[in-house]
Design brief:
The protein is of the alpha/beta class. The chain has 2 domains: 33-169, NAD(P)-binding Rossmann-like Domain (Rossmann fold); 172-289 and 312-354, Dihydrodipicolinate Reductase, domain 2 (2-Layer Sandwich). Helices cover 41% and strands 20% of the residues. The protein has a 7-stranded mixed sheet. A 6-stranded parallel sheet has the order 3-2-1-4-5-6, sandwiched between helices. Strand 8 and strand 9 form a beta hairpin. The longest helix is centred in the first third of the chain and has 23 residues, at 5-27. The termini are far apart.
Length: 356
Amino acid sequence: MNFSRPRFVVLVLMSLAIFAQRGSLVAADPAPVRVGVVGLDNYQAVAFTALFHDAKAAGDLKNIRVVAAYAGGSPDIPESVESLPKWMPAMKELGVEILDSIEAVVDKSDAILIMSIDGRAHLPQFKAAARSGKPVYIGRPLAASLTDAIEIFDLAKARQTPLFSCSQHRFSPGFIGMRNHPEVGKVLGCSVYGGCPTEPHHAELFWHAVHGIETLYTIMGPGCDTVARASTPDTELVTGVWSDGRIGTYRGIKKGAVKYRAMVFGEKGISPSGDYGYDVPTQWVAPHGEYMGYKGVAIEIARFVRSGQPPVSTAETLELFGFMEAAHQSKARGGVPVRISEVLEQARKSVAERGK
């Protein structure tokens, strides 16, 4: 086939334009993952949104947008009443649309973050979100009771809804980095300490101590068998004995100076962890570089909403809440050790009765 020079030039230019257009499509970012938030009485809702919307966001944090939110709130929790008027305007300034229902937020989103500070609200909020089957992250506390925690995970399984929950302490570098600390080696034991305020509508340790106990599990891993608790008005001391003989403790500070840290005992050495939000210590000196208190878990959330694969298993999360419930029962029984398997079995029976 013969072409005149002008026609040939036109065809070449058209071909180059098509290839250029295809190249630009390949190079362009994919459509952002749309995230919806339920509960704006928690500063973490603002913190995660700010990290996702940061113009300099890179790697896993890039190309995620919080597009809609439902305010929620609990009038019988002072912290909720005080926080909601502060964080709602902050979310609006970050470009988030505030909607009137959880269902409307779910419809606009590819994944949901349930951030309400009230653990009692999480089961009904999750029921509203789980109908979609879209990935759901629930902030701490997962629930205000062990029975609610079990029911949430049962519902996730029934609805085939990807779900995970954790404290921001879980992915704080100074804590998770102690699992393979070169100066500590294999972890043989751990003593965690942190603040322990309580809230009357939640089981004692579920409200805030959950962060310290999450630190304990982050460093020790799952596998705890029995739990015993000593309790005074100023201090909580919870001792867990793991099935392999290791011992981990949580000291809940109610009076005096408060810091969030741990002492880790290992095959090679003994070392304090890093401070909350910062890196692991080197030669027993904790560096203070970039603060990662919220960024660590935000990265894991970003990976989760894309993959649907939870970074913390259902079994470990339920064991952690069983640990706290066993501590409650130990206190009620005068400090005797209580098996986690026992309290999980009791709670599952309660859930079954509730469902009849």
